Amino acid sequence: xxxxxxxxxxxxxxxxxxxxxxxxxxxxxxxxxxxxxxxxxxxxxxxxxxxxxxxxxxxxxxxxxxxxxxxxxxxxxxxxxxxxxxxxxxxxxxxxxxxxxxxxxxxxxxxxxxxxxxxxxxxxxxxxxxxxxxxxxxxxxxxxxxxxxxxxxxxxxxxxxxxxxxxxxxxxxxxxxxxxxxxxxxxxxxxxxxxxxxxxxxxxxxxxxxxxxxxxxxxxxxxxxxxxxxxxxxxxxxxxxxxxxxxxxxxxxxxxxxxxxxxxxxxxxxxxxxxxxxxxxxxxxxxxxxxxxxxxxxxxxxxxxxxxxxxxxxxxxxxxxxxxxxxxxxxxxxxxxxxxxxxxxxxxxxxxxxxxxxxxxxxxxxxxxxxxxxxxxxxxxxxxxxxxxxxxxxxxxxxxxxxxxxxxxxxxxxxxxxxxxxxxxxxxxxxxxxxxxxxxxxxxxxxxxxxxxxxxxxxxxxxxxxxxxxxxxxxxxxxxxxxxxxxxxxxxxxxxxxxxxxxxxxxxxxxxxxxxxxxxxxxxxxxxxxxxxxxxxxxxxxxxxxxxxxxxxxxxxxxxxxxxxxxxxxxxxxxxxxxxxxxxxxxxxxxxxxxxxxxxxxxxxxxxxxxxxxxxxxxxxxxxxxxxxxxxxxxxxxxxxxxxxxxxxxxxxxxxxxxxxxxxxxxxxxxxxxxxxxxxxxxxxxxxxxxxxxxxxxxxxxxxxxxxxxxxxxxxxxxxxxxxxxxxxxxxxxxxxx
Length: 738
Prior knowledge:
By secondary structure, the chain is an alpha/beta fold. It contains 24 helices and eight strands.
């Protein structure tokens, strides 16, 4: 088969094939760029192999009675000058040229057996073969296993399904041209090739039919209507060919003789002579070539766009790896990285990063969230009396007064209790500092500039120095937090303008008690549970008042109530409930049920020594802790309520101070110092000539990636150049080649 006339395919397709090879060599497979390829499909013994060999003009495919094509064969035909000779190259044997086509057949068979075994099994792994010849037109073909229904040899029972699936994986690709081979001596309506082509290409726009064995049709019949695309129309029509028979192969009848026989057959045939443009291997090759060229022009804009985008991505990746630094460049490179890192950290902290995220909270915003939504909110949720019971407060008041009863609410219990509650604010404050420290460490690791990907030692040293510096700044932050809490505990400022004060606390407590008496009269069975209002900004729960009153002031155990005191009076008392009036806190006569006095009804008659002994009054031992069910005086009840009011008022003042000063301390000693001093700390520790070589040492992976990217970049640049060599559709039309 000789094609000496110029064709558009001889101009365009070689460039595309070079482009394909360039991209395959760097792993940019043709599937990504959708370069055109023709897949030959058909049933076993339909003549697929004969068609392919006729297109090449050489015997090179395995032959046999059973299935021969057991792996996909990617066949790339490259037209060369006559002086270059004819030879083949396998992708799995790079650099080796096969000038003997019998050796090509043997290598195809051997490579098939290596992958699929020697007993008819199949494999989907491609064999890639490139044939250089002056007899061919440039195109890329895929020879696929023939469709079969009955497994043979070691083939699995589902071999038909496996082959079907393998073929569809190729012909479903939109860039794949389907060459459907059907023998002329079979019913076209039952063609296996057309049936599977119809699945992948329902409209038939990518399918060209090849009718083989026209010379062995029954006498008096012909395939003229099929070749004229009248029977089962296809978008690309049909081509009829004449194959070598098995006898020709056994007699070593060459391809050229077979092509000559085919040409004579069509010229002498009374029917096919009138449709010569639809007959013969040369016409099939020409049509495939034209289809390839048209497809290339159609996909050329997208192909160029794809190459350009990949070229930009490769250049960007290459710039991230950069060039191997020279010794003279060490100092400037290290300094630049340190400055860029410091700038990136400050930008991340201040929220001035160019790539603001919407999917997550990051940078300085996380520190603000720690202050406002975690630290401040948590302190506001803490109950001032948490881990402090009424019994503990009463016990402390008892202990502070000694054997005497105080006329006023003791000051010592209040100060002891408030210091105890203030001390509890230290731990969450220190936790706040630790949370901010952790966030700053994360930020120091996440703001890495792209140059650091090349130098893992420098990256590790920067991380270590930043973390060490933050740890140093955490210490004065914690010390300041300790000082703040200790200052609050060391001086209880009862003159604070927002502190409720003793007089006000007693007034509030008295109003609460009076309101309770008026609105919730207590029966012997319990206490009313309505809430008791508290004047000002302080509020005490009904449960506390109810328990306090039920346990003391309004108990039914012979204790005089405040109402009784106000109604009956007592020596030296006043009716006012002001806390400065001693009568308000005066002790009451208490009937203690624990003191048992036993008397006999006949004690005026006869009393012996034993009866006298049984009437002795026994006192119990004092308890280690106060019971929550006993309240001995109104003074005691009032002291409890007043102390809790004072404690809550002052704790609220201190809590707000802590909420304000702790974030300020953390910002001053840690965050802002990190912003101001990180750059100088890094330069001081790392900008040293004796460290440069070690800091700028690259890993093998970085070197490997740089080499890979450089190869890809060169390949894409070559691909871009090759695309520029492809003539435009308008230019080819002017030359009459389209």
